[in-house]
Every structure is written in C-alpha cells, then in structure tokens.
C-alpha cells in the first residue's frame, strides 16, 4: 500500500492567539517526521490536526493512498497515541480493542487481538478492567488501540509518557515496524525518544 500525507500552509489560532502558521510538509511511505518544541509550542495541537481531532484555522491536510476514494475515510489510515486520549476504564483491554474495530466497521478477531496484547505485554491482563491498570499499562493499551486496525500513518504524541524500560523498548519496536510499513510522526520534547527521522519540524519557529 502506498500512502502520503501532505500539510499545506497550516495555521491554528485560538481567539487571537496564533499557535503556529505557515507550516507545510509532505511525507511518503517509509518516512518519519519528528515534531519538536517547548511546552505550549503547538506540538499536540499539530498532532490533533493531522489526526483529524482538530480542524486548522487555515490550510489543509491531505491523505492519499491506494484506497483513496469516495467511500474511503482518511481516518481508516491513521492511528494516534497521546496522553490526552482515554480508554474506557470499565471495559477490559479486549473489549476496548473490539470496540475500536467495531467503530471502524471491522470484525474483531480474537486471535489478532490476543497477539496484539501479547505484543504490548498485556496478554495476561487482557480480561481485567482497564481501571485496574497502572498508568504505564494504560499507555500500552493506547498503543494496542492505535495499532489494532493496522494504520498506514501512526501519530505519537510524547510516546514514552508513563512508560518504564520495558514499555519504552516496546514503543521503539513499534516505531521500527511502522517505518517499514507506512509513515511515522512523532511529537516530543525529549529527543532521546527517537533514534532517526527524515524530516524535523521545530514548532518554536512556526509562530
């Protein structure tokens, strides 16, 4: 599958406060974008716009792929992990992932869900309610939730938040796999979170 995401002249303002402006880039399959900047520079806002959680004040984001067409939503190509996204605490990990698939009109497959939870080291707790998880375990559920539909574009906002060394190793493996199959976008204030990238956007320079 060939995939591309293109941002053209993006601007975001809240009331009269400009968060960023004049932001353009294009990414193709197997490429990685690193988004950096100090707290409040607009990293998370940009990630939300790229993930269609927010709309820009001006400019456009276009996702094109082999499956682009009238009946294909760009959201089907995107997975998002972020500290501000919440799972359903009264559901188990399995139930959260089954819901993620149902929302996208996909049929849950127990074997695939189990394999994904094994990948993020949650298989043994897969039927426990998410509210019983530690903060690091909840972060790993978010990764499973984002990956369950095999997204071509993976957006990671502060990817190592709340993770221990085991969780960090898991995320690095996820990053490498995403580079091989699609597009990876990482927003972080800690450059040690990522080993390599093709393009960098410094949000401190975009006001």
Give a brief rundown of this model.
This protein has 207 residues and is α/β, with parallel strands linked by helices. Helices cover 29% and strands 27% of the residues. The chain has a single domain (3-205), classed as Rossmann fold (3-Layer(aba) Sandwich).
Characterization of the model:
With about 210 residues, the chain is α/β, with parallel strands linked by helices. The protein has one domain (about 5-205): Rossmann fold, CATH 3.40.50. The chain is about 30% helix and about 25% strand. The chain has helices at about 45-50, 95-105, 110-120, 135-145, 165-180; strands at about 5-15, 15-30, 30-35, 60-65, 80, 155, 185, 200. The strands form two sheets. It has a five-stranded parallel beta sheet, sandwiched between helices. The chain has a three-stranded antiparallel beta sheet with strand order 2-1-4, with helices on one face. Helix 2 (about 95-105) crosses helix 3.
């Amino acid at each position: 599958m060939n995939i591309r995401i293109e941002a053209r002249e993006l601007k975001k303002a809240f009331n009269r406060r400009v968060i960023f402006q004049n932001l353009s880039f294009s990414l193709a399959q197997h490429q990685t974008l690193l988004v950096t900047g100090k707290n409040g520079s607009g990293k998370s806002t940009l990630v939300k716009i790229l993930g269609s959680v927010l709309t820009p004040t001006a400019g456009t984001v276009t996702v094109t792929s082999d499956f682009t067409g009238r009946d294909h939503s760009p959201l089907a190509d995107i997975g998002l992990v972020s500290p501000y996204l919440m799972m359903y605490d009264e559901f188990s990990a399995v139930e959260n992932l089954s819901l993620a698939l149902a929302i996208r009109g996909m049929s849950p497959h127990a074997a695939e869900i189990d394999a994904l939870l094994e990948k993020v080291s949650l298989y043994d707790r897969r039927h426990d309610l998410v509210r019983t998880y530690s903060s690091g375990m909840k972060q790993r559920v978010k990764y499973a939730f984002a990956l369950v539909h095999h997204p071509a574009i993976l957006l990671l906002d502060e990817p190592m938040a709340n993770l221990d060394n085991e969780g960090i190793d898991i995320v690095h493996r996820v990053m490498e796999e995403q580079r091989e199959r699609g597009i990876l976008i990482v927003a972080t204030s800690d450059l040690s979170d990522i080993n390599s990238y093709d393009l960098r956007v410094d949000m401190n320079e975009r006001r």
